[in-house]
Write a structure and sequence with these properties.
By secondary structure, the protein is an alpha+beta fold. It has helices spanning 2-65, 71-74, 92-112, 218-227, and strands at 75-79, 85-90, 115-121, 137-158, 163-180, 183-201. The protein has one domain. It is rod-shaped and about 110 Å long.
Length: 229
């Protein structure tokens, strides 16, 4: 009886240890999957963002080199009888055409490089700084699907007493869905370009007042106006 009891105890102990080992193995696998997902998301977002930035820059630079962003084709001035500029008018049909053309170029180029391979060292999946970047590489194929928006806008900046710098800015936002094994991620890539600019020169004023102070200027300005200085 003692012998059989001893055998039953050893079997029960082995089953307990086997169960504990399986639980530990499952927990380790789950932890590795969580680490892999986080690592894959960061790497995929970084690589896709770099690729999208390059694609957008190349598309805009190609359009500029081809002369598609000609200032005189985008902007016209209204002037009074003395030849002074009274209004700046945007050529909205040309704005819309260029926005659509840039979007088509960006989406077409993104579709050509939508699939990439990511290699992650196995040690990086443990989350340990000591093992990061070590071990055999795990290759994962990533597919990205993008959509984008482009907007041309006017920007006016003071360039002197009687000068205003007029810029035409092109803002492009690309939204990329990254299809990874068993899950998806998303990232947004934003770029802004100055595609055309000019300096608008106005009339020289008869007088010019400039206040420079770290203190509130309301009282100084009021005294200046009241005293007629």
């Amino acid at each position: 009886m003692a012998y059989y009891r001893s055998r039953l105890s050893r079997r029960a102990l082995r089953r307990v240890w086997t169960f504990v080992f399986l639980i530990f193995l499952c927990a380790l696998t789950l932890y590795a999957m969580i680490q892999m997902r986080s690592m894959l998301t960061r790497l995929a977002a970084a690589k896709v963002s770099n690729t999208v930035n390059r694609i957008v820059s190349e598309a805009v630079n190609d359009a500029i080199d081809k002369g598609e962003f000609q200032y005189e084709n985008l902007i016209s001035f209204e002037k009074d009888n003395d030849g002074k500029i009274t209004a700046v008018k945007s050529n909205m049909p040309e704005f819309n055409r260029l926005q659509s053309a840039i979007l088509d170029q960006v989406l077409e180029r993104i579709s050509e490089v939508s699939t990439r391979d990511l290699s992650i060292p196995l040690g990086s999946l443990t989350g340990s700084d000591l093992l990061a970047g070590r071990g055999p590489l795990i290759t994962v194929r990533v597919q990205s699907v993008g959509s984008s928006t482009a907007k041309l806008k006017n920007e006016f900046v003071s360039a002197g007493i009687n000068q205003t710098k007029h810029r035409i800015q092109l803002d492009i936002d690309v939204y990329v869905s990254i299809l990874l094994p068993a899950f998806t991620a998303a990232t947004k890539v934003s770029n802004s370009f100055t595609v055309a600019e000019t300096v608008i020169v106005g009339s020289v004023p008869n007088s010019y007042t400039y206040f420079s102070s770290d203190e509130p200027l309301e009282e100084d300005a009021e005294q200046f106006v009241l005293n007629g200085n």
